[in-house]
Design brief:
Helix content: 55-70%
Largest sheet: 8 strands, antiparallel
Number of helices: 13
Number of strands: 10
Structural class: alpha+beta
Shape: elongated
Strand content: 15-25%
Distance between the termini: 49 Å
Length: 502
């Protein structure tokens, strides 16, 4: 339509539209919005995307939970027991004894997989025999360590839960970006659908203005007696049809504006109105360069690579866990022993009664079917993930090629549609002149005008289709957000979640 914007006929139509009743009513309460602002608002406010925003935060809790393996564990025990017993069967003498334990220990997992423990044990014993061992306190301080030497050895094995949880968070971020691309594409398409609806509305208003003008001229010529009254019926019918079409188009334009508002959750009241028409120009794209960008930027491919990394890591860990369990153990400490607790503590501090031990512990389930099955599953999943990545890479390359071809086809359709508008405009100008000279009937003029309106609609549809193809192209390369100046870091995604939590 822009190609023929300088013609005299289009100027005439514009004047007729401006002068027609109610032509300026739709502008009241309109809110102009740019394409970039539309996409940005959709990313910030779309409810579906806000739901997806919680997933990285949920995955973050998995990292925190997995890191809990390094939390020290404090154990404490208080135990008091009393016991009566006979030393000799059928004896009348009953020995009374009582025990009191007060133990505390601190256990810590180390990055190598070792478990270190510090324990302080207290035992107090007393009985009624009044012998040398009838009363004593025995405190004990010890340090012990158990280090795996085969299965469970190393930081990778120890922190396997943390690593898997971190990968899960990266995957959640990639899923968010994929969802953001879908929302941005929908917002962009909705924006151009609104432009299309408004341009169709302008076409219907111009058609109505021409029909009114023709009908007014017919009325004047019928009154002057130079035109048959049947022509007046034709113009009345054409005018009624165009009024009906205008109402339908107005409804469609309002519905498209409402859809856009709901999609981007626009907060202010009023009717959204695009600031500009369809962008001019052609998007130049190289298949090789676009495919390279897509293989680097596409979030679904990034997520697939994260899954492969996770399965390969799990296969590596499963190989270790399938090994026999062999651990080196050791402990050392000091004891105290005395009838009085204070003297027993002094004995403990003097370290006169030390003890230590070293050893090896071995464990291996015969057959080890469970560990072997875990290892086989991890290897199969890693290979499956690799196959999925290769398949996705081929699919992405096909998406890019298809999107580029679609853009080429749609752009050529614009050129064809422009020629149709030029032809329709010339025919309409000719028939309007012929009508004034009595060489064309009202029916002929309205049919030619309808053809011209259809040509304008075809051009509008072609331009909208081309922008839809551009949207699909930038989505296929994964750079749709960047094309609208939107770069969202991982930290910003987490900030969005905190805002929702508040």
């Amino acid at each position: 339509m822009k190609a023929c914007g300088r013609s005299s006929l289009f100027f005439l139509l514009a004047v007729l539209v401006a002068a027609s009743p109610g032509a300026g009513d739709a502008a009241e309460g309109e809110i102009p919005i740019s394409l970039d602002a539309t996409v940005r608002t959709a990313i910030e406010r779309n409810l579906g995307l806000r739901v997806t925003t919680f997933n990285p935060a949920i995955a973050e809790t998995g990292i925190l939970r997995a890191g809990g393996i390094y939390n020290p564990r404090l154990d404490a025990l208080l135990d008091h027991r009393e016991e009566d017993y006979r030393l000799i069967p059928d004896s009348a003498t009953v020995v009374k004894s009582r025990f009191f334990d007060a133990d505390v220990s601190l256990n810590q997992l180390l990055g190598t997989g070792a478990t270190a423990s510090v324990a302080f044990n207290n035992l107090f014993f007393e009985d009624s025999l009044e012998g040398p061992a009838s009363r004593f306190a025995r405190p004990e301080l010890s340090l012990s360590l158990s280090q795996p030497l085969l299965s469970g050895l190393g930081r990778e094995v120890t922190e396997r839960g943390i690593t898997v949880a971190s990968d899960a968070k990266e995957a959640a971020l990639a899923q968010w970006r994929d969802a953001a691309l879908a929302v941005a594409a929908s917002a962009r398409d909705a924006y151009f659908s609104l432009i299309k609806a408004q341009e169709e509305l302008a076409t219907r208003e111009a058609s109505l203005a021409v029909a009114r003008q023709v009908h007014a001229e017919n009325e004047a010529r019928v009154r002057a007696g130079v035109l048959a009254s049947i022509e007046l019926l034709d113009s009345e019918f054409g005018l009624a049809g165009r009024e009906r079409d205008l109402l339908e188009t107005q409804k469609n334009a309002l519905e498209q504006a409402d859809r856009l508002r709901v999609l981007i959750q626009y907060p202010d009241r009023g009717i959204l109105s695009p600031e500009t028409s369809f962008p001019e120009g052609r998007v130049e794209a190289s298949e090789e360069g676009a495919t390279e960008v897509a293989l680097r930027e596409r979030p679904d491919l990034v997520g697939a690579r994260i899954s492969r990394k996770t399965y390969e890591f799990q296969a590596k860990i499963s190989r270790n866990l399938a090994l026999p369990s062999l651990a080196a153990t050791g402990s050392a400490g000091v004891k105290g022993l005395s009838k009085n607790y204070g003297d027993a503590i002094d004995d403990l501090v003097s370290a006169d009664v030390p003890f230590w031990s070293v050893g090896l512990s071995f464990s291996y389930p015969l057959g080890n079917d469970s560990a072997r099955a875990d290892l086989a599953e991890a290897r199969l999943r890693a290979r499956q993930a690799e196959a999925q990545i290769r398949n996705l890479e081929e699919s992405i390359a096909l998406d890019v090629r298809s999107a580029i071809r679609d853009m080429e086809t749609k752009f050529r359709q614009i050129e064809v549609a422009r020629k149709g508008v030029v032809l329709g405009e010339a025919r309409l100008a000719s028939f309007l002149k012929r009508g004034k000279l009595g060489l064309a009937t009202t029916k002929n003029i309205l049919e030619v005008e309808a053809d011209y309106a259809a040509a304008r609609d075809a051009l509008t549809a072609a331009r909208a289709d081309y922008q839809g193809a551009v949207t699909r192209f930038y989505r296929s390369t994964g750079e749709l957000l960047e094309r609208h100046g939107i770069r969202v870091s991982d930290r910003e995604i987490e900030t969005m979640t905190r805002k929702d939590l508040r």
